[in-house]
Amino acid sequence: MTVSGSSGRAKRSTTQAKAAEQMATKPQARRASEAGTSAVVKGFSHIPHGNTALSVKADEARLASITDEKERKRLKRLLRNRVSAQQARERKKAYLSSLEQQEDEKEHRMNELENRVRILERENQMLRQVIQTVTRKSVPANPQPGDFAV
């Protein structure tokens, strides 16, 4: 049992070494090594791409050339995950954009309402002054019994 386990590890490390050699010649691997990131994991590039659609096409092409079924399934899963993650990022971006738009609209509406409140407060104050002025003029300081008609 231990013999098959150790040979399995040896086979995997040999596969990884071959993949590392293949990837070392690619420009992405050179850029990754210059950036200090790992670009080689069983021949699958984990470099963040600017355009996921292009990297998905490249991964699909790479997927078609792989004959090991286990590796093919792993790469398919990674590819689905990458596409799903990109879709989630796009949904999040759209959601945040809609929240920002709602915030702008509500802020604009609040400013309009605050202006309206200020106008109404001034109008209310003016009307109170008018009422106060009218009541002072119409009510004499010492009312006489005949001043008010009932």
From TrEMBL:
Keywords: DNA-binding, Nucleus, Transcription, Transcription regulation. It is found in: Nucleus. One of its GO terms (cellular component) is nucleus. Pfam families: bZIP_1. Residues 1-17 have a biased composition (Polar residues). Belongs to the bZIP family. The keyword Transmembrane helix does not apply. SUPFAM superfamilies: Leucine zipper domain. The keyword DNA-binding applies. Residues 1-38, 83-110 are annotated as: Disordered. One of its GO terms (molecular function) is DNA binding. This is Basic-leucine zipper domain. It comes from the Eukaryota. InterPro entries: bZIP, bZIP_sf, Hac1/HY5. Its main location: nucleus. PANTHER family: TRANSCRIPTIONAL ACTIVATOR HAC1 (PTHR46714). Residues 71-134 form the BZIP domain. The lineage of its organism: Eukaryota, Viridiplantae, Chlorophyta, Mamiellophyceae, Mamiellales.
